[in-house]
Amino acid sequence: MLLERGLRGLCILAVASQVCAHIKPENILWGKAGPPVAVGRQQNGPPEANPEDTVESTPEPPPESSSEVAPEADIKPDEEPAQEPAEEPTEEPVEKPAEEPIAEGEQDPDPTFESEATPTERAGPSCTNGPGTRGCWSPGFSIDTDFDAEWPTTGVTVTYDLELTGGTCDPDGSGPQPCQVFNGQYPGPLIEANWGDYIQVNVKNSLTDNGTALHFHGMRMLNNCPTDGVPGITECPLAPGDTKTYTFQATQFGSTWYHSHWSIQYGDGTFGPLVINGPASADYDVDLGAYTISDLYYGSAYEVGIQSHDNLQIDKPPPFPDNIIINGTNKNKEGKGEYNQVRIEKGKKYRLRIINGSTDNSIRVSLDGHTLQVITSDLIPIVPYYTDWVLTAPGQRYDVIIEANQTVDNYWFRADAAFDCYCLNKGPGGRSIFIYDGASGEDPKTSASKIPNWGCNEESPLVPWVPNVVEGGEEQFTSQAVNLQFDLTREGVSTNGENVVLWGVNMSAINVDWSKPTLEYIQEGNLDFPPELNVVAVPAPDTWTYWIIQETPGTEVPIPHPIHLHGHDFYVLGRGKGVFDIKESPKTLTYDNPTRRDTAILPGGGWLVLAFPADNPGAWIMHCHIAYHVSDGLAVQFIEGIEQMPLGDEQWQQQCDNWRTYALTAPYPKLDSGV
Ligand SMILES: *[C@@H]1O[C@H](CO)[C@@H](O)[C@H](O)[C@H]1NC(C)=O
Ligand SMILES: *[C@@H]1O[C@H](CO)[C@@H](O)[C@H](O)[C@H]1NC(C)=O
Ligand SMILES: *[C@@H]1O[C@H](CO)[C@@H](O)[C@H](O)[C@H]1NC(C)=O
Ligand SMILES: *[C@@H]1O[C@H](CO)[C@@H](O)[C@H](O)[C@H]1NC(C)=O
Ligand SMILES: *[C@@H]1O[C@H](CO)[C@@H](O)[C@H](O)[C@H]1NC(C)=O
């Protein structure tokens, strides 16, 4: 029996072609930028902060939010939200392959800062962060700071203890669901720090028969790969009873989340918001804080994981979620459960940090009657723009400012599965209520604004506030690309004998070994990686690398994939429908201040071109953030700067020893790729 189940785990490799029959392979092309060039405006290494000197403290609490209000007892439980977007679409969500690339950042954004402080003032020592001066931060640091190169060192360490336990949760009144959560909370507790602080998280695995490992999504972890929290790559999982302290400096600021990267665990609630306070590219009065949106499956995520493996074998998508949970709560189909309520005051501007913690679905969010001013994409401040709906894919985050300038009333906040991203939800849709001071608090009667009809495409334009230029530009990209001796439409792995590799996921789904992480191979000087680790080496540090990710044409179900990279942000040079044309497509790419983020959508049946500087030694995974897809192996890891790579210390080694001991008698086999 055990053997059979074990084999089933190994089956991932065979399943890979099934994954691809359904998802179709992503061919990942990796090309080293020609001659080694200094990377962008990069300066290597964090400042010599001495953690010994740090003091423990917690950051200033965010402005008071008045949303913790129990719903009124007389709320009609089954009054349907005003409008069901699922019924609304008139266009078929069919991908029409087009040769045209999708315009990215073409629209010229309004460069004016909607703030009282000028750039000069923002740089000055007297400019402090406040409602009219959100661009300011601390002396010498502002929204204009190039945070790749510099960041404050506050000397502060904020410390959090997270204990993972198993049990049940009931986020939508449907009865107890199995869950694995930190400190008994779904989602887990907020981790909050200020820009430049050290964050120390003590994780204890109090599950009796599952491992865990904690990843801080989007955190650069500069020269700190052993803290990246990816089992089988950067560490062994934490065995039951074991503890690990993750310590890193918040060199970036903004809204993100932490989640277990072990198996399919985060689907059972093993995640929470992570907010790093810093400057912003537009002004607001009140920070409402993190607003996590996640999909809920009744039953255990491990069972849903098995179901989705089985579905892949017969060319079916993973199961659809039963509900969408906003900030930990929602009503279910029967009207049980509670809506999250947010109190706002007419005339004020609110910052809301939308964090998509879902496992499978892309979500569209909006607030009836209100325009959203978008100020970040992932951890990158952008030139603000206005929109009615924001589309988030799993792993993506957008911070928005909402101006409470409508009639005093109650308004639906909506988070709906994006039908045109092949996402469905069996529940009523994600709903919460924004209540103006003086309004009744009843269920709103408002209706949704029209859903945009541009399909499952990423938000645009997403123009980074601090401009960047991708080194080498088209010339370098093209000179690499024309060297490639293969047809991108052909599946397979090939090299040009120099420094370019084409890699097809269907050849080899990743399947890591929890008991032998990649960093241990490197520690031992053993670079003989088994093929199923999907290792791609980046030979020269401090050069730009370019990746073309191609979904094989002719895919029956052209699902878009949110591609997420660890250890870096990437620059999104372009994307398009159909096949990347090695002659024509490079001309369409943006090299001058392209969108920058850590999770980007690969269009269904199309291509995505990313670039990033190899400036962070480590073993980093790049994967699809649909939890079931990475579980099925849709990932690659790349190894960067072997000579300079930081490796595990004694505690790290002890954790591996503990895991290996536990694994000898672990009650459950490994059923997925484990990341
Ligand atoms: C989200 O939930 C937390 C915990 O209940 C609460 O403290 C916070 O105010 C809520 N956020 C918003 C924006 O409602
Ligand atoms: C984790 O525990 C759940 C039960 O809570 C079990 O179904 C699953 O198989 C376990 N997975 C592993 C890999 O231990
Ligand atoms: C956002 O939430 C929706 C709803 O749960 C989910 O389907 C989608 O995958 C999430 N996106 C992210 C980035 O988590
Ligand atoms: C409310 O604010 C938005 C910007 O957030 C603006 O576009 C809209 O015109 C304003 N509406 C009113 C009624 O002032
Ligand atoms: C895809 O997988 C199938 C089955 O393993 C294999 O025959 C085929 O060669 C693979 N194609 C590529 C490009 O790897």
Automatic annotation (TrEMBL):
Organism: Aaosphaeria arxii CBS 175.79
Keywords from the UniProt entry: Copper, Glycoprotein, Lignin degradation, Metal-binding, Oxidoreductase, Signal
Name of the protein: laccase
Reaction(s) this enzyme catalyzes, per UniProt: 4 hydroquinone + O2 = 4 benzosemiquinone + 2 H2O
Biased composition (Acidic residues): 80-92, 101-113
One GO term of the biological process aspect: lignin catabolic process
Record-linked PROSITE patterns: MULTICOPPER_OXIDASE1, MULTICOPPER_OXIDASE2
Family that this chain belongs to: Belongs to the multicopper oxidase family.
Signal peptide: 1-21
